Amino acid sequence: MGGLDLRELECFLALAEELHFGRAGERLFVSQSRVSQLLRALERRVGARLVDRTSRRVALTPLGERFLTDLRPAYDALRSAVGGARDAARGVEGVLRVGFQGVAGRTVMAAVHAFRERHPGCEIEIAEIPLADPFGPVRRGEVDTAVVLLPVAEPDLTLGPVFSRERQTLAVSVRHPFASRCRLDAEDLADCPLIGPAAPAPAYWRAAQAPSVTPGGRPVPAGPAVSTLQEGITLAAAGRGGMLLCRPTGTYQARDDLAFVPVDGLPPSALGLIRHRDAATARLRAFGTALAGVAEA
Hints:
Elements: H1 6-18, H2 21-28, H3 32-46, E1 51-53, E2 58-60, H4 62-90, E3 94-101, H5 106-118, E4 122-129, H6 136-139, E5 145-149, E6 157-166, E7 168-173, E8 184-185, E9 194-197, H7 203-209, E10 222-226, H8 229-237, E11 243-246, H9 247-252, E12 258-264, E13 269-276, H10 282-296
Parallel strand pairs: 3-4, 3-5, 8-12, 9-10
Antiparallel strand pairs: 1-2, 5-13, 6-13, 7-11, 7-12
Helix pairs in contact: 1-2, 1-3, 1-4, 2-3, 5-10
Keywords: DNA-binding, Transcription, Transcription regulation
GO molecular function: DNA binding; DNA-binding transcription factor activity
Pfam families: HTH_1, LysR_substrate
């Protein structure tokens, strides 16, 4: 096979994601006919058809599926290497925007301070992102990276350091029967509506923050769906249900009309740093290193 043409590979990746010649061309800023030309050239190099196309649909062939699986990590590594070299030449400078949900805890703030000390030429900005939209701000470019509650199962996002694994607590009104308890079992959640995040957060992520069944299979009543942590805390204080929070968040949110009761039998909550799959700048790598170092200390 002759020398590789990076444009042909980029064309194939765009087409594999869009499954539409016109949209692939728009992504690459070329015409639809140019997409067809690049694909045909790549298929000649490979020696077989990678894409089945008719007037009504576009689909990868079995070989195209395999080629995509093999190509994606190699292409990402190549882009990362080029970006890393470029960033190294420029140094860590500019502006880094870091998002957080609800509370920017001690670990996050320690990482921010460590980053500023190591990279004084880079300004770091922190911004709260909605509880109910953990991934949207990164996708829309409103922040460069974000600290979010796990789990994260988004194919276009990369999960960096995972930290702050904490026991879960249930925030309830001081008038709730659970408020006098020193601890709860996960099965007790069947007796309390759970306040949870609203859409557009993915269903799997919302279910992790406010499960619909206990580990033993008992149904858990659904409480109000909220967009922000403060909204959820306020509704819990008003007796509208309970809200699962990690222990440090409960400490930060302490107030006279709320009780925070530890819950046994649930997986611990955890936080992770996310970025877009195609973003691998020196600033992001440096902040990830700072966060990992603080979390491990």
